[in-house]
Amino acid sequence: MKIHENFKLINHNTFGVDASSKYFIKIKSEAELNAVFKLKQFEETEILILGGGSNILFTQNFNGLVIKNEIKGKKVIAETNSFVNLKIGAGENWHKLVMYCVDNEWGGIENLSLIPGNSGTAPMQNIGAYGVEIKDTFVELEAFEIASGKIVKFSKSDCKFGYRESIFKNEKKNQFIILNITLKLHKNPNVNIGYGDVIKVLESQNIKKPNIKDVSKAIIHIRNSKLPNPKEIGNCGSFFKNPVIDQKKLEEIKKDYPEIIYYPVSKTHVKIAAGWLIDKAGWKGKTFGNYGVHKKQALVLVNYGNAEGQELYELSEKIITDIQNKFKITLEREVNII
Ligand code: FAD
Ligand code: EPU
């Protein structure tokens, strides 16, 4: 276990921001994590846990210890004719995990294909796409409590999952390090193709009875057509959440913008497509030197070169103010800001 000093994080965040941390350690096991917390050197040091760095914006250097979670492993811990319970190390790459499940014909997470990042980070914001969230297959996770050094189990209800939310982003923020997660996957899966363009893509391929591999491929195809590949253009996916507003406010906005895109979330509330708002406000494709708003998806901020985290953050401030002025809607950031 090597302790790096003044460590460059440019290859450890998908925005490709050239920030650094005072200290940096990779941990590959629970034992190594325990060892780090026994080091006197770090007793007073601020800690940041990093997975794949695909949902984090460094607006400054981090003056503490970054612990990169590389705890690996996948194990079936229970099995029936219908289900497998799979325990996964937090440091396993999420998309590779999805591919492993698809190859084994275990259904439940195929709609979450091609989401970057680590499996252990997935519950942090209850990752979601194409009508599925990780909460739908989630059983439990184990996490290291920083204050006590104890391992604590969190069931699905303990995690308080919501849209891009969990207890780890709220009341337990910065208190736990997720070590592993357990998912319950279906051996005889039903496919979920009700969302957006998925059916259209399958129809265009003349696939009438899609299996989970077909669905995964269709979703990868859609994602590749509109989201920038972080290996080519720095980004963190959606920079903002889709705002949830009440029907009354929706009716007011519809007077000026009858074409606004929204989805019902309850009898009283709807989720507005923030990408549509930002697009309508004229930001889509705008560039400011080496950063800007993606040309195919206005919800995605991009770093074309050597942009600084602070510049991307200031752009997000301008967008929030503009959307507030134009639509009286307050956008909330999805990306974690350092
Ligand atoms: P990181 O960026 O490394 O960390 C995110 C946060 O979690 C940080 O606050 C970090 O401190 C904390 N953290 C990380 N690991 C741990 C741990 N083990 N224990 C405790 N805290 C931890 N998200 C979606 O929900 N749906 C999408 O469709 C989607 N599409 C994306 C597309 C692209 C092109 C990109 C770049 C991102 C996309 N994302 C999407 C966002 C992102 O991939 C997810 O949020 C992902 O789960 C982040 O994982 P990570 O390991 O990279 O997290
Ligand atoms: N739209 C526009 N202009 C744009 C972008 C979008 O008009 O520039 C419209 C689209 O035409 C569509 C609607 O807005 O009618 C929604 O767009 P899209 O289907 O691309 O989805 P999204 O709401 O922008 C959300 C998630 C994504 C997830 C997709 C698919 C959030 C914040 N984002 O995006 O998650 O992959 O749905 O389920 O909920 C992420 O979290 O990082 C992420 C990429």
Order of strands across the widest beta sheet? 6-7-12-10-11
Give the bound compounds: flavin-adenine dinucleotide, uridine-diphosphate-2(N-acetylglucosaminyl) butyric acid
Calculate Rg over CA atoms.
21 Å
Structure annotation, total helices: 7
Please give the alpha-carbon distance between the first and last residues: 25 Å
Q: Which class best fits the helix and strand makeup?
A: alpha+beta
| Beta-strand fraction estimate | 25-35%
Uncertain segments are none
Instruction: Label the CATH architecture of the largest domain.
Output: 2-Layer Sandwich
Q: Element order, helices and strands? A: EEHEEEEEHEEEEEHHEEHEEHEEEHE
Shape: globular
Total strand count, please?
20
Q: Kindly state the mean pLDDT as a whole number?
A: 96
What's the CATH class of the largest domain, please? Alpha Beta
Helix content: 10-25%
Stated plainly, the CATH topology of the largest domain is called Uridine Diphospho-n-acetylenolpyruvylglucosamine Reductase, domain 3
Description:
With 338 residues, this protein is an alpha+beta fold. It folds into 3 domains: 4-69, 2-Layer Sandwich (Uridine Diphospho-n-acetylenolpyruvylglucosamine Reductase, domain 2), CATH 3.30.43.10; 74-186, 2-Layer Sandwich (Uridine Diphospho-n-acetylenolpyruvylglucosamine Reductase, domain 3); 234-337, Uridine Diphospho-n-acetylenolpyruvylglucosamine Reductase, domain 1, CATH 3.90.78. Helix content is 23%, strand content 28%. It is built from 7 helices and 20 strands. The chain has helices at 30-38, 94-103, 198-204, 212-226, 247-256, 274-280, 309-327; strands at residues 4-8, 20-27, 47-50, 56-57, 62-69, 74-79, 83-89, 128-129, 132-133, 138-145, 151-155, 176-186, 234-238, 244-246, 262-264, 269-272, 287-288, 291-293, 300-303, 336-337. The strands form 6 sheets. It has a 5-stranded antiparallel sheet, with no helix packed on it. Strands 1-2-5-3 form a 4-stranded mixed sheet. The protein starts with a strand and ends with a strand. The protein binds flavin-adenine dinucleotide and uridine-diphosphate-2(N-acetylglucosaminyl) butyric acid (EPU). Uridine-diphosphate-2(N-acetylglucosaminyl) butyric acid binds at residues 129-130, 196, 226, 237-238, 241-242, 261, 273, 275-276, 279, 284, 297-299, 334.
